[in-house]
Design goal:
570 residues, mainly alpha, three-stranded antiparallel beta sheet, 8% strand, coiled coil, DUF7745, DUF7745 domain-containing protein
C-alpha cells in the first residue's frame, strides 16, 4: 500500500498543459470516411475521447493514490489496476496479446524520417525540429508545422506547394500520416505544450503491432514518476485513464452519466456530470469514504468471460514496452476485475524490466568533484616533492574508500528502506486479499445455505415425483390390460374376417366371377319366368276355353229357357 493511500495530506500536484485539443477536433472533421477508417484501425474508436473534459482534481487524487511499488491504485481497502484487456475494450481494439507489441529500435535521423512520412523537404523540416541532429528518440516537432501544411481539406496553395518533395502527389496519404503523428503526440503520449515527441513514430507506423502495451506502459511510468516526485506533467492519455476509472464507480451505472456503458460500446456525453466538482483533496476524501458497495469491480462493457494474462514464464508480472522506456506491472492483483477470486499473488521485483531506452550520461553536469573518477581529473601535483605526492595519493585513496563506504551504506539504507516499503506494501495487499477471501467465504457460506434449502426442495419434489411415478405405473398397468383386451378382440375380429373372406371366396363362381347363389337364383328366376310364360299361355287357352264354354253355356241356357217356355205353354 502506498503511504498516501489513507493520508490525503500528501497529494501529488500535476501540471497540465494546453495540448491544442480543439485544433485536433477541427482537423478530424476535415478528413474523409476512408481516412477515418484507416486511423481508427490503429488507435481504435477514439473520437469521443477528444470531447471528454478531464477533471484535474480527480487525476491529482488518483496520482496520490498510486502505489509505484506494485503499480496499482490503493484507495483504502480497494486495489485497482488498469489492464491491457480493459484498455483494448475501451478503444474497441483486438486483444493486445493477439498482436506483437511495439518495441522501438534505433531509427534514422529525424529529418529523414519525417521526409518519408510527411513528404516535406529537408529545408522546411530541419529548422522546425528541436535537436535535428538526434534520432527520433530525442527530437520533437511543433504541432503548428503539421497543422500548417495538413490541417486543411485540399492541397495548400502554390506558396506552400513548393515545400513538398513530390508536390501534390500522395498529399492525402501524407495528411493521414501527419494526423496520426499529431494524435499520438497530443493525446496518447503528450510531453509539452504544442510539441510532439518523434518517439511516437514507431508506434504509429508499426503495422500489425498493438499500441495498448505502450499506452499502459507510459501511464504506469508517468504515474510512478509523479508519485515519487510529488509533482509532474502527466505524460499519458488522461482521458482514457479517467474513463477507465469512472467505469469502476457504481455512480455512473446508476445515473448513466456522463457515460453510457453497453457491452463492447462506450459512448459519453459532452456535458460531464461527476459526483461533484472539487479539488484533489475533496476527491481524495470522497474516494476514501466511498463504501465497497460504491465500487464496480467488473465493468459492464467487457466480455462475458475474461481471459487475462497475469504473468510470463520467467517473470511474476507482465513487462510493458513503451515509447521512452520499459516497465512492468502485476495483473494478478486485478483478478476481481475479471470476475475471479482474488488471492495474494506472488510479487517479484520490477527492476529487471524497468529501464529507459536512453540512459543517463556517466558523468552528469554539475556533479561534485569528489564523485568524478581520477581518470577524468587533471593532476595538479606536477613538481611537488615526492612525499607530498605520496600523501596526496594516500589521501585521495582514503577519500575514495570513504566515499565508497558511504555510497555502499547509502545504497544499503536505500535498499533496506525499499525492501521494508515493499514488505509493507506486500503485507497490506496480503491483508486486503485475506479480507477479500474472508468476504468471499462468507458469501460462499450463504450460498451453501441456499444450496441446502434448494436441496430440501429438490428432495420434496423427488418424493412427489415418486408418488406420481407409482400412479403412472398403475395407469400403465391398466392401459396394458386394456391393450391386451383390445388385442384379443382385434384377433377375434380378424379371425371372423378371415372366415368371412374364405366363405365369400367359396361362393364365387370361377366361370363368371359372381357368387354361386346369385347364378342359381338367376337360373331359377329364368325358369320361373318360363313357367310364368307357360302359365300365362295356359291361362289364355283356358280363357278361350272358358269363353267357348260360356258361349256354349249361353246356348244351353237359351235352349233351356226355350224348353221351359215350351213346357209352360203345353
Amino acid at each position: 500500500m502506498a503511504s498516501s493511500s489513507s493520508d490525503p495530506d500528501s497529494l501529488v500536484t500535476l501540471r497540465f498543459h494546453d495540448f491544442r485539443v480543439e485544433r485536433m477536433r477541427h482537423w478530424w472533421t476535415l478528413l474523409g470516411e476512408d481516412d477515418h477508417a484507416d486511423i481508427v484501425g490503429i488507435f481504435g474508436k477514439f473520437p469521443p475521447f477528444m470531447r471528454l473534459q478531464v477533471d484535474r482534481g480527480l487525476l491529482e487524487a488518483l496520482a496520490s493514490f498510486w502505489d509505484p511499488t506494485h503499480c496499482c491504485f490503493s484507495i483504502g481497502e480497494v486495489d485497482l489496476i488498469p489492464t491491457m484487456e480493459e484498455y483494448a475494450k475501451l478503444l474497441q481494439l483486438d486483444s493486445p496479446f493477439s498482436e506483437t507489441p511495439v518495441i522501438p529500435i534505433q531509427g534514422p535521423r529525424s529529418n529523414r524520417c519525417l521526409e518519408k512520412y510527411l513528404g516535406l523537404t529537408t529545408a522546411v523540416l530541419r529548422p522546425e525540429i528541436a535537436r535535428p541532429e538526434a534520432t527520433w528518440r530525442k527530437a520533437n516537432i511543433s504541432l503548428d508545422l503539421l497543422t500548417k501544411y495538413f490541417s486543411r481539406s485540399a492541397f495548400p496553395a502554390a506558396r506552400l506547394a513548393r515545400d513538398f518533395i513530390a508536390g501534390k502527389k500522395e498529399w492525402k496519404k501524407f495528411r493521414i500520416n501527419a494526423f496520426k503523428i499529431a494524435f499520438a503526440g497530443i493525446f496518447l503520449f503528450p510531453t509539452s505544450a504544442g510539441r510532439i515527441d518523434l518517439g511516437v513514430i514507431p508506434i504509429v507506423f508499426s503495422e500489425g503491432r498493438s499500441i495498448i502495451p505502450a499506452i499502459l506502459c507510459e501511464t504506469v511510468r508517468s504515474l510512478s514518476f509523479c508519485r515519487r516526485q510529488g509533482e509532474g506533467v502527466p505524460m499519458f492519455c488522461t482521458q482514457l485513464l479517467q474513463l477507465w476509472f469512472c467505469s469502476h464507480l457504481q455512480h455512473f451505472y446508476r445515473l448513466q452519466t456522463p457515460y453510457h456503458f453497453e457491452r463492447h460500446t462506450v459512448s459519453q456525453t459532452v456535458q460531464i456530470a461527476l459526483p461533484f466538482t472539487g479539488d484533489s483533496r475533496a476527491w481524495a476524501l470522497y474516494l476514501l469514504d466511498l463504501p465497497l458497495s460504491g465500487w464496480a469491480w467488473k465493468v459492464t462493457w467487457g466480455p462475458a468471460s475474461w481471459m487475462p494474462w497475469t504473468h510470463c514464464a520467467l517473470f511474476d508480472g507482465v513487462p510493458l514496452p513503451g515509447v521512452w522506456g520499459c516497465t512492468g506491472h502485476y495483473p494478478s492483483l486485478a483478478l476481481r476485475q475479471f470476475s475471479g477470486v482474488q488471492y495474494p499473488p506472488r510479487l517479484g521485483d520490477l527492476d529487471a524490466v524497468t529501464f529507459d531506452y536512453i540512459p543517463w550520461p556517466t558523468v552528469r553536469p554539475g556533479a561534485p568533484y569528489s564523485l568524478i573518477s581520477r581518470s577524468l581529473r587533471v593532476s595538479a601535483s606536477t613538481g611537488q616533492p615526492e612525499r607530498v605526492t605520496a600523501l596526496e595519493r594516500e589521501l585521495e585513496e582514503a577519500q575514495t574508500e570513504l566515499l565508497s563506504l558511504r555510497l555502499a551504506r547509502a545504497s544499503e539504507r536505500e535498499a533496506s528502506a525499499a525492501r521494508v516499503e515493499s514488505l509493507r506494501s506486500t503485507l497490506h495487499h496480503n491483508s486486503v486479499a485475506v479480507a477479500n477471501i474472508r468476504r468471499d467465504l462468507v458469501a460462499q457460506r450463504g450460498n451453501v445455505s441456499t444450496l441446502r434449502t434448494m436441496n430440501e426442495f429438490i428432495r420434496e419434489q423427488l418424493e412427489i415425483s415418486e408418488d406420481a411415478k407409482e400412479q403412472l405405473e398403475e395407469n400403465l398397468a391398466e392401459a396394458r390390460e386394456q391393450l391386451e383386451t383390445e388385442q384379443a378382440e382385434r384377433t377375434r375380429v380378424q379371425d371372423e374376417l378371415d372366415s368371412l373372406r374364405s366363405y365369400t371366396q367359396a361362393l364365387v363362381d370361377p366361370a363368371t366371377g359372381r357368387p354361386q347363389d346369385i347364378v342359381a337364383l338367376r337360373r331359377a328366376l329364368d325358369a320361373s319366368e318360363e313357367a310364368l310364360t307357360s302359365a300365362r299361355t295356359s291361362m289364355g287357352v283356358m280363357r278361350v276355353q272358358i269363353s267357348v264354354l260360356q258361349g256354349d253355356n249361353g246356348v244351353l241356357q237359351s235352349e233351356l229357357d226355350l224348353s221351359s217356355c215350351r213346357l209352360g205353354g203345353a
